[in-house]
C-alpha cells in the first residue's frame, strides 16, 4: 500500500500512511524500554521502566481499587498490572508516532514525557539513589534515537515521490533492526536482572528450643484436605513487590534502633550465632476472604524478637516496632503484642530450610496471631522502636488497622464448591484456625440443619491450624455445606460478614455440592 501511486496534492489523506508512524512510535518505545531494562539489570532490576511505573502505581492505588484487583485477579494481579502498563505505554507511543508525522516536536515531546514519568517513578522509590536514574536515561537516549531514525524512514516511505519499493524497504529494514535491537537488549537485561541468591549456602544452626515433631496430619486419610504442614513451594505469597528482592547475606545487616538505650547492628552471621527457637505457626493474610487460600502453616526457626529488644534496651515512649524491608517497605507491630509472651521471631528458616527468596530471605519477622501485614516483614533489615504518632507503616498510611489479630475462621477443603460427587458415604473436611487462642471445636451444617461436631486432626499448639473432618452420607441432589469454628475460650466464629479491609474478613463459608 505504501508504494501505490498517490495523488500528490492530497498526501495526508492516503489510507494507511499513518501506520509507519505508529509503528515507529511503538518500536522506539520498545527499544527504549529494552535499553532501560538492560541498564536496570546492572543497577537494580526493580528500576526497569515498566517495573518502576508498576511499583509506583501499586503504591498510589487507593485501597478499594487494590482490594478489587486482588479479589478479581488474585495472584495474577501483578501480571495484569504490568501488562496494562505495557499496553498503555505502547498505545501512547503509537499516538506519539502518529503526532510526529506533522509536528515532530509534539510526538518526541510525548515520548520524552513518558520516559520522564518512568524516571520519576524509579527515583521516588523509598530506597532510590542517583544510580536509579540510569535506566531512564538509557531509555531516553535509545528511545529518541530509534524514534528519529524510524520517523525519517517513515517520511521517506510515505513521501509522495516514493513510488519505488526502495524507501519502503528502508523503513522495513529500520523497523527490523530496531526490533532486533530491542529483543537483544531486553533479553540480555532479563538475564542480568534474573540473577538469584542461593539460600541453600546458608548453614542453619541447631535451634536451642526445637519444635516438638509435627504429628502426622489427616492428608493421607482424608483426600483433598490441606496438608497439616504447607510445603514451602505451595505456601501463599503476598507482597507489594513486582520483582522478588534478591538479598545477599554478605551485604545484609539487621539494625535495631529508635527509642532504645543500646542501638546495634548485626551481620547475618551474628544473627545466626544468637540462640534460636523453632515453632509451628500458621500465617494468614488480612486479604484472605472467607474460605480463601491466603493461609499457610509452616515450621519457622529464628531469633526471639524479645531477645533482640532486650539487648537494645527499649525506652519508655515506644508503642510500636516499625520494621523495614530492604526495599523501604514498612510494617508496624504493636510493641505490647510483641512482648506479651508469644513466639515472635526474626526467622531465618522455614520448614527446615533457609527462607526462600519469595518468603523473605535472608530474614523476616514472624508474629504468631497477627495478620502478615502487621507482623511478618520479609527481607527485613531494620527494627525501629517508635510511636504510631511519630511514624506510620505502609498499610497504616493506607488506613488499614494497626491492631490486627487474626480472626477465628474455618474452611472447607473437600468437597469443593460446585463439585459433583457420587451419592453415598463421603467425607467433608478442611482446616480451622484461631491463632494464639487455639481451636476447641469445629462444626458442620448440612442444608441449614443442626450444627454437627466435626472430628479434629492432631494438635500442634494454639498458633497452628487444626484439620477437621466429618463423615457424611450424601444423598442425591443439591446440598449446602457450611463450617464454623470455636476457639478455646468458647468464642464461636461469627456469621456476620466483614470485608478484608480494614482488619480482616469474617463470616461463615458456605458451599454448594451436587450429589448424583
Ligand atoms: N517486605 C515485605 N514484607 C511483607 C509484605 C510486603 O509487601 N513486603 N507483605 C506482608 C503480608 S501482607 C503478608 S500476608 C505476608 C505474606 O508472607 P508470605 O508471602 O511469605 O506468605 O508478608 C508480609 N511481609
Ligand atoms: Mo497480607
From TrEMBL:
GO terms for molecular function: heme binding; molybdopterin cofactor binding; sulfite oxidase activity. It comes from the Bacteria. GO terms for biological process: sulfur compound metabolic process. The chain crosses the membrane at residues 21-43, 79-99, 106-127, 133-151, 171-189. Residues 242-394 form the Oxidoreductase molybdopterin-binding domain. Keywords: Membrane, Transmembrane, Transmembrane helix. The keyword Transmembrane helix applies. This is DMSO/TMAO reductase YedYZ molybdopterin-dependent catalytic subunit. It comes from Lapillicoccus jejuensis.
